[in-house]
Amino acid sequence: MNKSRVAVIKCTSYNDDGVLQSIKKGIELLGGVSQFVKPGEKIVLKPNILLGADPEKCVTTHPAVFKAVGQLFKSAGAIVYYGDSPSFGNAEPNLKKSGLKQVGDELGFILADFDFGRPVSHKDALLVKNFVIANGVLDNDGLVSLPKLKTHGFLRYTGAVKNQFGCVPGFLKGQYHVKLPDPYDFAAMLVDINTLIKPRLYVMDGITAMEGNGPRSGKPKQLNVLLLSTDPIALDATACRIIDLSPEVVPTSKLGEKAGLGTYHVENIEIVGEPLAAFIDKSFNVNRTAPTPVGKSGRAMSFIKNQITQRPLIDKTKCTRCGTCVRMCPVEPKAVDWDKGNKTQPPRHNYDRCIRCYCCQETCPEGAISIVSPWLVRLFARRRPAAKE
Ligand code: SF4
Ligand code: SF4
Question: Ligand 1: which residue has its CA nearest to atom 4?
């Protein structure tokens, strides 16, 4: 069996030229840019913009990474398009907030339509056989994925595979959380999007990653690394090893391997470039426990389940009563809402309705929502003897 190759490249800052040289080196280690594009082809770059934010906050793929990949593909003859569908709102204002639109305008990249899409069927899918995919993806010859390495409440980690969720336009993304509340079903859907779209190359921005309360409200963490691969499962597994997170904890790993998308097994991955050991950060703040399966009956969570499942919690001192969490909650009736319509107080969660999709935590602009363990779990964790190394 051929091993999946992952290029691991040291890059310590977002200096444009440094990033360009590093990504060029990584692409050369994978066979050169001509492996991924023919002159005249339309290639869409798909950064992670989530909700658009200042690049320094590390919520989004850094403009320097976007710029470098675009330049390399353009110089190989590609017509470069770009886009992403944010958690809510249209793509363009969020691309501006992320500093990506400015780079696109400067270099003549074309804004692709990620606000609207059309139906596509996927007969070989693990789980979801019909998608609506953004026109900007379907109208191009190929996609290059530019994920950001971050923590994620629902799936623990977001990277190469998860990045393609932004190819589903607009509010349709929220509906997947309602239809697929189990993290393993949700992960199967993410794998299906990747086997449908088949990005040609994945280039991960791990120069400054996000730890803690990600994917929007965590802390920037310097990892000084760029990861490149054609195998998103191997790339994600390598990123997980860097942050000392077992790839098996991330639901897309095993499902991705099952679907033939790639491999997470270390013996099947060839690291090229720098040795991985130089980047491993055991202090990286990430939840290292596997997500709890919701199961087929999970929509009506039992009392017991509520006592053991993590939950979103609002810090009243940080909440500005903006209402984003209420708007973003995909379940009806809302699982986080104003108490009797009173908008002068923070919204309140109803944990019986809550499906633990963490869209509220992901989108709160103040970082006021964190994911906490219930008191029973905290009590058990305190009493449990420390695990041996
Ligand atoms: S999104 Fe955050 S700041 Fe806004 S109302 Fe909800 S908890 Fe408060
Ligand atoms: S309250 Fe938050 S975690 Fe619960 S269903 Fe709504 S958005 Fe998802």
Answer: 322
